[in-house]
Amino acid sequence: MLDLRTLTRQAKDRLIEFPGRPLMMGVVNVTPDSFSDGGRYLDVEAAVAHAIQLVEEGADVLDVGAESTRPGADPVDEAEELRRAIPVVTAVAKSVTVPISIDTSKASVAQAALDAGAVLVNDVTALRGDPAMAEIIARTGAGIVLMHMQGTPRTMQQVPHYEDVIGEVAAFFEERIRFATAHGIGQRQIVLDPGIGFGKLLVHNLTLLARLQRFACFGCPLLVGVSRKTFLGQLVDRPVQDRQWATAAAVAMAVERGAGILRVHDVRAMKDVMQVTVAISQETIEPMKAQHA
Ligand code: HH2
What we know:
This protein is an alpha/beta fold. 41% of the residues lie in helices and 14% in strands.
């Protein structure tokens, strides 16, 4: 397993430290279906309550997102994304102490979220979406997730094609790290993500997970998002709300192959999966020893 203890990340004025195990990133969605007709106050309250619950379940980081990146999703305009995301980031930052990530590819949303208390920007375009993003990350010292995606969310599942998915994703990481550092972003701010489900067929997702270790050479933590995704549904033929066991298997394999951050919806269950996988991978019986002491 990758030694995560060497991978402390800088994120604004905070250090994100790895306690010798992967970090659990809990997903806080503020997309329209989470919006009641009752108005914004209730929506913000519901998102904050969800965020607090995820932290109680063991989330080490929260990822707040206001634009769906599901295959085929339409882009959300800037004013709407700001209106949805910023009150939630502001309120969550006052309610929890864990680092907050903003899932956005818009520089204005990233800047406003960083001002409101976020410390990490999860940019699924890896700094290719908004030309102003790199400067904001460099100036603020925020952490940045550079995720691989072929195409855009609207088109990415139409014809994903790779000659060599591992080689192409590795080349992408190399080029994006070079781009980021050339724009004044420190290596220690960077997290890499192979972008499971983003412009990939089932076989590509499976290969990326199976050979995740290949990307350890960049010296950055690897974020993996498998939670409830379509490729799991393709394997077990279950609807999205019934993919927790399938998610568990993928989380365990990702941990065993060196994932550093696990982006999940079901934090409590997946944290158990992570802890057991780590214990077996490290051949340690510390938790049992402690129990019987
Ligand atoms: N996956 C989704 C959204 N953001 N960010 C990163 N870095 N990596 C991912 O794998 C990733 C991501 C997919 O989210 P979606 O299925 O659209 O919904 P949800 O936000 O509920 O997970």
